[in-house]
Amino acid sequence: MTGTEAQPARLAPLLRAGGTHQKLLAFASLIVLVLGFSLASPRFFQVDNILSILQATSVNGVLAVGVTLIIITGGIDLSIGTMMTFCAVITGVVLTWMGAPLLVGVATAIATGAVCGLVSGTLIAKARIPPFIATLGMMLVLKGLSLIVTGTRPIYFNDTEGYTEISTGSLAGKVLPQFPLPNGVLVLFLVAGIVAWILGRTVLGRYTFALGSNEEAVRLSGVDTAAWKIAIYALAGGICGIAGLLISSRLNSAQPALGQGYELEAIAAVVIGGTSLSGGRGTILGTLIGALIMAVLTNGLRVLSVAPEWQTVVTGIIIITAVYADQIRRRGSV
Fold it and tell me: Counting beta carbons within 10 angstroms of the beta carbon of residue 295, is it exposed (0 to 12), middle (13 to 18) or buried (19 or more)?
């Protein structure tokens, strides 16, 4: 074995398949980042900035939770960013242009995402289109539809009472005024808790892991793998609809050109948290840690006045590193 080959083999036990070691490694990385940025700038570890980090984590975290389901099956979804935007746009149409009640708008966002996910899942499971190609096409379709529906102009929610409270309000602040945790963060925790329960306690969760581990064996055992895969993509799409609510609520508008690029940060968060791109293994807790790492890194670089273009470079390096770590885990588990 050469030195180049031996290094991944030595690292593999520490990075193996979304287990305890990987979550501990990710959590330790998060602590190091927080301590490092706190020492580098006194502005970093302040209540307002910590709340800003958590607020930023809410959107990317919800997207990451949704795509975790898909990656565990061994698939991928490149459309989650533009799907989030499309859900926000359709919600804007229903609430602002049609004057529907707030709850109808919330239901519309989730239903729109679920339908988009169902279409992607059907293309993948029934038409046998590779997930990369199917979701890449869906990404472009939804991006175009968002621009067409809005005429390339933002839709504002100024006349929709209570809409901005979905993300920026603070129910927790009424109990703890010193730390007014945004509602968007509570939504993230709620979504993460529900999905973690689904993965650990339901038939859908068991089949999610089974499809990623050995889909052919599951199919040969008499399970309708196509139906379960479509259901998983639809569920992930509905979660993207929730992310659409959070980001449009925070901006008080549906921005039709927004969304592309969010999928990369979400997927990076999932892989950093220990979910394997080969499927079959992963946890929601690890995904949340990964999302926090991405948010802390972005915020810390901004606090240190690092140029935006270098922030993009660092994000790219993190994504490459996360994928390389996943490769090491896969080699170590063979």
Answer: buried
Would you identify the CATH topology of the domain 20-33+41-327?
ABC transporter involved in vitamin B12 uptake, BtuC (1.10.3470)
- Taking phi over 0 as left and psi of -120 to 50 as alpha, with beta for the rest, 18 belongs to left
Count CA within 13 A, CB hemisphere, residue 225: 19
Cα gap 172→179, rounded to integer Å? 8
Q: What is the pLDDT along the chain (334 residues), one digit of tens a residue?
A: 444 444 434 433 333 334 566 677 788 888 999 999 999 988 898 989 999 999 989 999 999 999 999 999 999 999 999 999 999 999 999 999 999 999 999 999 999 999 999 999 999 999 999 999 999 999 999 999 999 999 999 999 998 889 999 999 888 877 778 788 999 999 999 999 999 999 999 999 999 999 999 999 999 999 999 999 999 999 999 999 999 999 999 999 999 998 888 998 899 899 888 888 888 889 999 999 999 999 999 899 999 888 888 888 887 887 787 777 777 766 665 5
- What is the 8-class DSSP label of residue 280? S
Predicted model pTM: 0.90
Task: Give the CA dihedral 234, 193, 52, 244, nearest 10 degrees.
Answer: 20
CA distance 263 to 158: 28
The set of residues, in sequence order, having a beta carbon less than 8 Å from that of 201 and lying 6+ positions away, is none
